[in-house]
Design a protein that fits this description.
Two copies of one chain form a homodimer.
Chain A: H1 5-28, H2 35-42, H3 56-78, H4 85-102, H5 104-111, H6 125-128, H7 130-144, H8 163-168, H9 178-199, H10 210-224
Helix pairs in contact in A: 1-2, 3-4, 3-5, 4-5, 4-7, 4-10, 9-10
Chain A binds a DNA duplex (30 and 30 nucleotides) through residues 4-6, 10, 34-37, 44-48, 50-51, 55-56.
DNA sequence: CCGCAACCGAGAGCAGTGCTCTCGGACAAA
DNA sequence: TTTGTCCGAGAGCACTGCTCTCGGTTGCGG
């Protein structure tokens, strides 16, 4: 378990590579990210880079992991557990949007088209879930504080909403049934659907004031999951 | 205005090129679509292809246009104007999803990350709007047939929902104010947000039965815009 | 009917890419 | 000190988008 000096410098080099790659990603986007270019930026031969990443896709996977982490951290940082649930919801949504607007290419890498021939999303799932975890915790806290309307007590349906998702979305509680959990999943995907449409230009011609539109949308989504509306 | 024989054969060649490109797109995706490969498939030199498309991006733009057209046609074909509004809404949503599942790479090209350094979406807007037009017409018909609840009569705000969007979303009607139009825009983007999450793998671990989940989601969205729920 | 001009296909070539292989040097462990 | 593992560099392969030039065909105007 001792980290030899070789491992240390190796980890350091990996850090430099990912940092340079992240810069390139932010500048030119994932499609134009070139392994040789990051090698040039680091002053090393392109072949040397393969000692640390087996392929370009592995480098991108690393960037995806880091991106999910950064976005999740932004969401967590924006959540003040002492605030009322609806305010927390709006604040987290706004923080997510702000991050995506500051890192559009990272966002496209995370939530745009999968880059290669369907990269295995298995190991990225936990990192990708962090925003969902934050939103789910808000929902659960609201339920436990009695801020949620009574649920109809719909029967559980593990194929519709998996047990894992239930655990994330506040756990078991009388105020939470599959109907509100489904609406929570819908709100989650709608949040990113709205952001994608904005960043990818699908709202051109329909929405001018993106800031106010987004605020109104998150308000609707808060109402959809039972957190009331402003 | 006479189409000379030269123009005719030229248009024919362009058709063959786009057809071959579309096949390639369906197989390997937009990122791996190679100009030289389509030239090979057509048995011509790669340089000859540049007589018809100035660049690879122009070919992709053409495929994007065609994709929007095909998706829009599928949505229109699924809309039976004599059916009740809610049924029409559900049918169109389902048709959109079915098309995207049959053409995942085309969908990724349309609604995934913009491919080059932000292609100008100006000329693609009318083609991209077709699904929105279908959904908007359903909303307008519902309003005119009195199937929509009374609106609060919120003041118009052209920066929030543009005049063009108003024209698409059923036009002016007492049952339609900016609040329901905003919810219609939200439903529109949520439809594609849901599809994107499903196709791009973000629902892995949360939703097993995608078919039933999608039906429930479209039901929620129908309720959101005032078409009632099942 | 013929000549000209526009058009078009093919080939070579350039710069760039991801990736592999081999070689030589440096450094840690025995 | 020797040994073996690791690592960087260079050459090279197959591929890409794209340009340029050359030669042939073909359709149109005189």
């Amino acid at each position: 378990m001792t980290t030899s000096v070789r491992e240390r410098v190796r980890a350091e080099v990996i850090g430099e590579i990912t940092a340079a790659a992240r810069r390139q990603l932010a500048e030119v986007g994932a499609a134009a990210l070139s392994l040789r270019a990051v090698a040039r930026e680091l002053g090393m031969a392109s072949s040397a880079l393969y000692r640390y990443f087996p392929s370009r896709d592995d480098l991108l996977t690393r960037l995806i992991l880091d991106g999910y982490d950064a976005l999740g951290a932004a969401a967590e940082a924006a959540d003040d557990p002492s605030a009322p649930p609806r305010e927390r919801w709006l604040a987290v949504c706004r923080a997510v949007r702000n991050w995506t607007r500051a890192h559009p290419h990272e966002y496209a890498l995370l939530y745009g088209s999968p880059v290669p021939g369907y990269t295995a999303p298995r190991d990225t799932v936990p990192a990708a879930a962090r925003v969902g975890v934050v939103l789910g915790r808000i929902l659960g806290d609201a339920a436990r504080s009695g801020a949620l309307p009574a649920a109809a007590g719909r029967a559980r349906d593990p194929e519709l909403v998996s047990d894992d998702a239930v655990a994330v979305l506040g756990g078991e509680h009388p105020a939470l049934d599959d109907a509100v959990r489904l609406r929570a999943l819908l709100a989650w995907s709608s949040l990113f659907g709205t952001i994608s449409f904005e960043l990818f230009g699908h709202f051109v011609g329909s929405v001018e004031d993106g800031d106010r539109y987004f605020d109104r949308v998150t308000d609707e989504l808060a109402a959809l999951v039972g957190l009331g509306r402003g």
